[in-house]
Amino acid sequence: MGEVNNITASLVLSVILIYFHPEVSTIRAVFGVNEVVPRSLDLTRDVTPVTEWMNGISSYSMWWVRIHEDLWMHYGDRKYLAAQQPYLTVLLKRLAGLIGPDGREPIDGMRFLDWPSSSNQQGVTAGLQGLLVTPLEPGCQLVRIAPQLGNLQWVEGDYPTPHGIIHVRHDRRPDGSIQSKITGPPGVKVDKAQ
Question: What is the rounded CA–CA span in Å between residue 163 and residue 188?
Fold first, then answer.
């Protein structure tokens, strides 16, 4: 019984850590390297076939990828990242295959970004598209930003790169065109798709 409870507790902790990137970042900032993070990432990977979304939610699988990028950038643990390569490679190909020729994502399953915005499906769609900013060169030296506002009047957000944060704001003009304000760090070129 104790072993089952430990497995259940580990799985619950994995779900909490994987799907809440700010919490993982807090663990990193406050405690430094902590084995609970990679163990949770591994457990979630091991119980989720790459053909399915983690916890049934596409953005959770995207956060899993983002957390690995964050861990790599902060700790540079090549051995740990290499152990993720088979799963990451298939998952990234799956995600890349979900970006249509128009730059939009037709992601299936539960469309979820975070609990406060879950009732705002336009906001969720904008957020999911933000998670799919397209790096065109290694290290985000060149990225493509394709505004997809749907029925929204504006969207605004940040996208982290190894060079620093890219800040993006898109506003719909009265004529329907999109005005964008994009600021980024040195070392990052932005290709703004129309």
Answer: 7
φ, ψ of residue 19 to 5 degrees: the values are: -95, 5
Q: Is the pTM of this model over 0.70?
A: no
C-alpha distances in Å from residue 84, one per residue of 21, 52, 129, 149, 179:
18, 17, 24, 34, 39
Could you tell me the CA-to-CA distances from 100 to 97, 132, 146, 164 in Å, in that order? 8, 11, 12, 27
Helix (H) or strand (E) holding 173: none
Alpha-helical segments (H) within the chain: 2-18, 21-31, 36-47, 58-75, 78-96, 121-131
Q: Give the separation between CA 67 and CA 36, rounded to whole angstroms.
A: 13
3-state secondary structure of 113: coil
Take residue 151 and report the two structure tokens written for it. Answer: 């029925």
Measured distance CA(150)–CA(176) in Å, rounded: 11
pLDDT tens digits in sequence order for the chain, 194 residues long: 444 344 444 444 444 444 456 777 777 767 777 888 888 899 999 999 999 998 888 888 888 888 888 788 777 888 999 999 999 999 988 988 887 777 667 777 666 655 555 677 666 666 665 555 677 776 778 888 877 777 778 878 777 777 888 888 888 899 988 888 888 899 888 887 76
